[in-house]
């Protein structure tokens, strides 16, 4: 069965990105199934069933700010209820995450769609919602 194997996000600071993604992904049901760190690179895998997201830091790379242009637009994570959306919003708000749109119904996407939008430490746009 064809599927997306994994998505890798390059990060500018592994420690802050790991703390950020741990706070989100582990809370919504992902587990970390691999972590490796040396003085030259660090990588961590988050997995939920067939879904696999990696963060990766490379000491040899220079980092430029994320630009929402050709390529990645955003990543959306779905949870099971509006209450879970609200809980994650409060969790990220208390962590001083950059919230770009608070929890609300977005009927322009689907009649019952409820979500909020935010950025990771490198400015990558993310969303948590209920489809």
Describe what you observe in this structure:
- This protein is α/β, with parallel strands linked by helices and 131 residues long.
- It folds into 2 domains: 1-59, 2,3-Dihydroxybiphenyl 1,2-Dioxygenase, domain 1, CATH 3.10.180.10; 73-131, Roll (2,3-Dihydroxybiphenyl 1,2-Dioxygenase, domain 1), CATH 3.10.180.
- The protein contains 2 helices and 8 strands.
- It has helices at 14-26, 82-94; strands spanning 7-10, 31-37, 41-48, 51-58, 75-78, 98-105, 114-119, 125-130.
- The strands form 2 sheets. A 4-stranded mixed beta sheet has the order 1-4-3-2, covered by helices on one side. It has a 4-stranded mixed beta sheet with strand order 5-8-7-6, covered by helices on one side.
- It is globular, with a radius of gyration of 15 Å.
- The two termini are 24 Å apart.
Key terms:
131 residues; 2,3-Dihydroxybiphenyl 1,2-Dioxygenase, domain 1; 39% strand; alpha/beta
Determine the structural class based on helices, strands and strand pairing.
alpha/beta
What oligomeric state is this?
single chain
Count the DSSP helices.
2
CATH secondary-structure class of the largest domain: Alpha Beta
Query: How are strands sequenced across the largest beta sheet?
Result: 1-4-3-2
One letter per element, helices H and strands E, the order comes to EHEEEEHEEE
Major sheet characteristics: 4 strands, mixed
Strand content is 35-45%
Distance between the termini: 24 Å
């Amino acid at each position: 069965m064809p599927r997306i194997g994994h998505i890798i996000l390059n990060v500018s600071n592994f420690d802050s990105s790991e703390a950020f993604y741990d706070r989100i992904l582990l809370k919504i049901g992902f587990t970390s199934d691999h972590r490796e760190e040396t003085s030259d690179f660090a990588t961590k895998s988050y997995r939920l069933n067939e879904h696999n997201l990696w963060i990766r830091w490379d000491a040899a790379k220079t980092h430029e700010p994320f630009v929402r242009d050709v390529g990645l637009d955003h990543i959306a994570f779905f949870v099971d209820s509006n209450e879970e959306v609200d809980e994650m919003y409060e969790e990220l708000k208390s962590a001083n995450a950059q919230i770009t749109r608070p929890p609300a119904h977005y009927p322009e996407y689907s009649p019952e769609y409820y979500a909020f939008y935010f950025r990771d430490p490198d400015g990558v746009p993310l969303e948590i919602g209920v489809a």
